[in-house]
Specification:
Structural class: alpha/beta
Shape: globular
Number of domains: 1
Strand content: 25-35%
CATH topology: Rossmann fold
Number of strands: 14
Order of helices and strands: EHEHEHHEHEEEHEEEEEEEH
Low-confidence stretches: none
Largest sheet: 8 strands, mixed
Length: 203
């Protein structure tokens, strides 16, 4: 069973629909027992980092997520991926979960061409680095769908894939042990995204 963490922030319906379209047993939950019983966990997220972290703290699930990440695959998606890092500088400084080394910074500040639109929104090619089971059904250069204004930095050793936006190599996929993250939305990335989710379900 794949448990999707419900903490009031995230595109739960489209994500659960995509997983069920793949024939995967999926449950949306904020129950610690169900997260412990799950084979895999997905942490979704949309919106601002500080607000999302506060809502996640309010559920009391942060210790559970840290414990379960030691035992089973966990995937953070979009803001859910950003929450995996040590800290974010989105409208102040906020602590992350510390599951992946690195920090989250403003994409606009990093761009040489300030006319490029932020948020970085739409389809972009993902350049795969190395061989990982998550890419079992995914080909280098396939297009995935992004919507974000901040991006992960100082995480070179954990980075599995990037997408070029202006002069910036946007961190698209990370891994640290059992913990994975995608800055893009696999559930909105068509067939390529579904194949990525399928591979996650087989980890």
């Amino acid at each position: 069973m794949i448990a999707i963490v419900d903490y009031g922030v995230g595109n739960l319906f489209s994500l659960s629909s995509s997983l069920r379209a793949l024939g995967l047993d999926t449950e949306i939950t904020r129950d610690a027992g169900r997260l412990r019983a799950a084979d895999r966990i997905i942490l979704p997220g949309v919106g601002a980092f500080g607000d999302a972290r506060a809502k996640l703290d309010a559920t009391g699930l942060v210790p559970v997520l840290r414990e379960e990440a030691e035992k089973k695959p966990l995937l953070g998606i979009c803001l859910g991926m950003q929450l995996l890092f040590d800290r974010s500088f989105e409208y102040g400084e906020h602590p992350g979960l510390g599951l992946v080394p690195g920090q989250v910074v403003d994409l606009h500040d990093a761009l040489d061409d300030k006319t490029l639109k932020v948020p970085h929104m739409g389809w972009n090619s993902l350049r795969v680095r190395g061989d990982d089971p998550l890419f079992k059904y995914f080909n280098d250069g396939e297009y995935v769908y992004y919507v974000h204004s901040f991006y992960a930095l100082d995480c070179e050793r954990s980075t599995l894939g990037t997408s070029r936006y202006g002069n910036v190599d946007v961190t698209g996929v990370v891994r640290n042990g059992n913990v994975y993250g995608t800055q893009f939305h696999p559930e909105k990335s068509g067939d390529a995204g579904l194949r990525l989710l399928k591979a996650f379900a087989e980890l």
